[in-house]
Amino acid sequence: MAIVDLFCFLLFCHLVLILSAGYGNGHQDCPHSFTCGNLGTFNYPFTKAEKPDCGLIAIHDCDNPHQHRKMIQLEKNGKSIVLTGVAQQNAISILDEDFHKLLQQDPCGTLKNNYSLPSPFSLYSIHIKFNVTLFRCKHSLKMKPPAHYFNHSCPDYDYDIYYDSLPSPNDKEVHSLFSSCSVIQISSKDLTNTNDILSFVSAEMVLQVVLSNDCDQCYNRWGGQCRLDANQEFYCEKAPKNKSKILKLVLVLGLVTAVTVALLLVMVKIYHTRWKKQNPTNQQIRIFLEREGPLQTKRYDYSEIKKVTNSFRNKLGQGGFGSVYKGKLPDGRYLAVKILSELKDNGEDFINEVATISRTSHINIVNLLGFCCEGSKRALVYEFMSNGSLEKFIFEENVVKTDRQLDCQTIYHIAVGVARGLEYLHQGCNTRILHFDIKPHNILLDENFNPKISDFGLAKICTRKESMISIFGARGTAGYIAPEVFSRNFGAVSHKSDVYSYGMMILEMVGRRKNIKTEVNRSSEIYFPDWIYNCLESNQELGLQNIRNESDDKLVRKMTIVGLWCIQTHPSTRPAISKVLEMLGSKVELLQIPPKPFLSSPPTSPVHLSYETL
């Protein structure tokens, strides 16, 4: 009976609050839409500056006929930007005058970096709807680009800007050509003159405003207004309703539920208590999804996952995380669906994967097309990579099974592609992403052997200003973990830790053997980098049987030197990944042989550390 009494008391309090709220000012004066000069009709979350409580983004001077230019601020206390029109619902066109002036005065300097937007807010996020990818390259490209690539000359700078004018597929020649270039993402408009970069790189852009899940439900389903309290916590301020309707609704609900509510509350209480105790993973994932709001990747129902995989009939592989199945969308595109059988660290791997890859967009990063989080079922949906992982093409025991050995040019192409992907993670995003598990198994290959970095379960997101990061425990796979990750005596954990893993991986690619063999007796084991270094000094072959000419030999030697630089014991002596790309694009004769790494064979199992700043 105590639960029933409690329910009646809470219901009475709730009714009093609802009726009291009905006499408040509310937001019944807020229109569903409004016009702003001759720019068109705007909807929520936009509002006139005179009614700031009716929306999230205010437009100034809408009702001022003497002010033809309407201004908008995308973030609180941010700069004012010229509003040029409404593109569609929740999408506007703007003109960034500061950016426009920079484009006119100094286009090369302006195109040096990505165009940045305000960071996502808790109630909404903003995205550029149309953008273009540019390549910023030094003047001394080793060969002339194909005809469909044009450039914007920058004589006052040490680089030129290139752009692909045709939607052509990627090929090895282009990847090799732009291997030492930086990738720039910037706003664009329709291509009217592909010979002039300033004709499509534009300060006038279309912005898409996406409401968070909570805010979308609040406004579109409940007719409320999205608010933040003093602690910046979300709440929905609902519109007042007719008093008599509320009384009738409460009466009906009371009559219908009076008999069953006590039993229902007992069952819910028991279930909820057990759920909280036994499923901390679900709590962590729920909090993550609520915090992130709407993601760019699709959220699938489990029934959809079963449908696209034909009830999990085509199994591609099996791992400690679960199983991977091949799927197919109705439009004919193939998918790879990872079904997670067991989540570790309260679902941290799953959360990391979704949070990290949803922030990326790069040719050398695997595309996360969606995810499933339904009850205890978890799944990740990726683009399908027909050639699988790099691992099966480089180690002797796997090459025999696949009957396919990669030639030197392809191995070099893969090494450059992975480096470009890492450069994007370290420098090309608004936030810096450290992968912490670069290894052949996590490099996927498409039908043209273009590499893509996958498996971001151990990744860590940090700001680009952080030179060192904090970690809990060792991250990574034995043999690829940088010394500083398992012992702070070697230095601070940073983006150089990924460089170490990358270096060990390309040494395996040229040596065609794993850097650690657990079945070998430790007393007789030859430490892998020592073996590589000795081969380099004595000009011995490293295992690639497809060295056909002097050019191939130089590529192998170049990758070996770069790999040895990457696995230097102290992070300070390792190159950044951008420097690695520069070295891979240089002549081998110009590369200096690094000192021999002095670290003894690393541990074969992860070392657990206490939480500390390294």
Automatic annotation (TrEMBL):
Keyword presence, Methyltransferase: no
Q: Name one GO cellular component term.
A: membrane
Q: Which residues form the signal peptide?
A: 1-26
Pfam families associated with the record: Pkinase
Keywords from the UniProt entry? ATP-binding, Glycoprotein, Kinase, Membrane, Nucleotide-binding, Receptor, Serine/threonine-protein kinase, Signal, Transferase, Transmembrane, Transmembrane helix
Location of the protein in the cell: Membrane
- Coiled coil region boundaries: none
Record GO terms (molecular function): ATP binding; protein serine/threonine kinase activity
- In what residue span(s) does the Protein kinase domain sit? 310-599
Q: Where does ATP bind?
A: K338
Q: How does it sit in the membrane?
A: Single-pass type I membrane protein
Span-the-membrane segments of this chain are: 246-268
The record's PANTHER family line, in alphabetical order, gives: RUST RESISTANCE KINASE LR10-RELATED
Name assigned to this protein: LEAF RUST 10 DISEASE-RESISTANCE LOCUS RECEPTOR-LIKE PROTEIN KINASE-like 2.1
